[in-house]
Amino acid sequence: MDNNAVTYEQAVDLCNRAGMRYLAYAKKRERGADVDETEVKHDLFLLYLEAAKSGLPRAHYNLAVCYHFGIGVGVDHEQAIRNYEKAIEGGSTEAMIYLSKMYALGEGVEIDRAKSDEMLRQAAEKGNPIACFILGGHAANDKNSALALSYFKKAAENHAKYSYCTSVADAQSGKDYESARDGVGKSLAKCLFFAAYLTILVLRVKEDFEKAVEWLKIAFYECEMPEAVIVLAHAYTYGEGVPQDFEEAEKYVKVAEDHQLHGASDARDDLEEVRARADALKKKQEK
Asked: How many Cβ atoms are within 10 Å of 170's Cβ, its own excluded?
């Protein structure tokens, strides 16, 4: 077996997705077999199946994902539900999210919106940022900006918790770790952006302006979400959450224009108007 396989085999104890996937590849190479993605996914499923015998919640969650989306095994909603429920008993908030989805769509069960929403709320109460983001979206659609902000804010404050977000991102397609992280980054960027947008532009929660600007910068610089520059331009134009700085505002407006973002022209107009007023005031004071 690959010399590194022993290290990765230890991951089985925690049912770590990346480690067990590597182990599945290592076992194929040990047998001298050609690495076929379909067979590796089946081997991965068998590893989860074996790990679940120990009752490990993480193993039941990963096994449920396999049954739910047909990763390495045929789709089996009954088995998916059974394993999600076992994972939930062990405290898995990720399992709550996917079981919520099954009740919302009627996958293997009767559609039950109330039960679906309750599972999401339970996951959100435990701090799962994906659940917070989904509920924030529901609240925003219902025009409840205050409730939406509370959920987006909680999601933003938990943005560093990549461990379970990563599994949520890659579960649907069995993508590799890097692809999963890309998906996570986009989800987290939306949490951060909407929390900041509501804080600064909608509800005007002035005591949180500074934190909102930090969220926007994470969304833009770390998660590569260009839409964040619209609100950053506003913040620097009016000095909200940061000292007023027309050069910084200009930089973000230019990015918005380069990306042809909705709101770029308004951001430009605001900057030019505020800058002109400031220049006029400065000239008046110099006289």
From this structure: 24
| Residue pointed to by tokens 């331009």 | 233
CATH, residue 17: 1.25.40.10
Residue 11: inside a domain:
yes
Q: Where are the beta strands (DSSP E) in the chain?
A: none
Q: Which residues of 125-160 are buried (b: 16+ CB within 10 A; e: fewer)?
A: eeebbbbbbbbbeebbeeeeeeebbbbbbbbbbbbe
The answer to whether residue 192 sits within a structural domain is no
Q: Is 4 helix (H, G, I), strand (E, B) or coil?
A: coil
What is the structure's pLDDT at 26? 55
Mean pLDDT by 10 residues, the chain (287 residues): 38 46 56 66 84 86 92 94 96 93 95 94 91 90 93 80 42 43 66 92 94 93 91 98 98 97 96 95 83
Residue 138 covered by a domain: no
Give the Cβ contact number of residue 15 at 10 Å: 21
Contact 188, 165 (CB under 8 A): yes
State the pTM of this model: 0.72
Whole-angstrom distance, CA of residue 214 vs CA of residue 219? 9
Q: How far apart are the first and last CA of the chain?
A: 82
Within 10 Å of residue 234's Cβ, how many Cβ atoms?
A: 23
- Count of structural domains within the chain: 1
Residue 29 falls within a domain, yes or no? yes
DSSP 55: T
DSSP string, 12-75: GGTT-HHHHHHHHHHHHHHTT----HHHHHHHHHHHHHHHHTTT-HHHHHHHHHHHHHTSSS--
d(CA 12, CA 18) in angstroms, rounded, equals 10
Give the range of the structural domain holding residue 3, as residue numbers without chain letter: 1-97
Measured CA to CA, the distance from residue 203 to residue 44 in angstroms comes to 47
